[in-house]
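Appendix B, example 12.
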Amino acid sequence: MPKVELHVHLEGSIRPETVLQLAANNGVSLPANDLVGLKEWYKFQNFPHFVKIYVGVSDCIRSTEDIEFIAKEFLLGQATQNILYSEVTYTACTIEKRCGIPVDEQLDALRSALDWGKKALDVEAQFVLDIVRGDTPERAAQVLDWVSDNLGKGVCALGLAGFESLGTKVFADVFGEAKRRGVPVTAHAGETEGAWSIQETWELTGAPRIGHGVRILEDPELVSEFIRQGMVLEVCPTSNVCLGVFPSLEMHTLPELMEAGLAVTLNSDDPPMFGTSLTDEWIRCSEVFDWDDEVAQQLTETAIDASFLPDSAKQALRSKVAHSTIGA
């Protein structure tokens, strides 16, 4: 079926084989040197352990050629799944800091990959450059500048990720400035922390979309407010299970979120790290939650509506989805 994805991380989408290749090419030492070992490394103990591994994978990127390669490989994977459009989170500030690649050069490499994807694969994507909780407000302001300078040029929004326990208040002024500049925002919250994190993040960022947000049911008043405001949750079920937010897919609150009237989208987050793909998410959720074609259509339409595309591009994407060949 034709698909749209709004919550997937580029660095977290690097295939294990490619991680090993990049590490070998760039002289980076990993805790594992084969696929079996890498899969063992990917057995996450908790969120801090996941972040440590995520940063370790990011450290394998050492050149603009690496960035363009992983972006092209990502787009090929999306095309294989019939994912027609993706909004992809990318942590340019971490790559600049740890790998020494200037942001302008990073973005040039990403744009080159996007052009290739559109011409060679007929798939499209844009990037969300995210602020990392734990960074300084000054660094966050720098990320905002990168986003506002590149909106419509392969970049579609400002993001927020990292340890929710650190809160969002330190970035209040940055997100206030983002609003003044008209920069779209999406923010992670309500994954490792409860509904308080969603409330705080939403109030301070003004984001129309919350990454994850699955713990919102802890606050019925916030649920009602989200429904009134038309807020959208970017739900990543397998990710939530792998990181211990829920003990199993069967125990996930996704059906309750939908029954409550909340708008949700289905996403893969960091697919190879969690042993999934967007196609797998659809298959697993359809089987466990007894979804039919009507649900698939509804969630896909929600994703298109919630995207940061202009209205004309949304309409074109709706038409493309409607006429897309049914595939994987």
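The radius of gyration is 18 Å. Residues 3-323 form a domain with the TIM Barrel fold (CATH 3.20.20.140).
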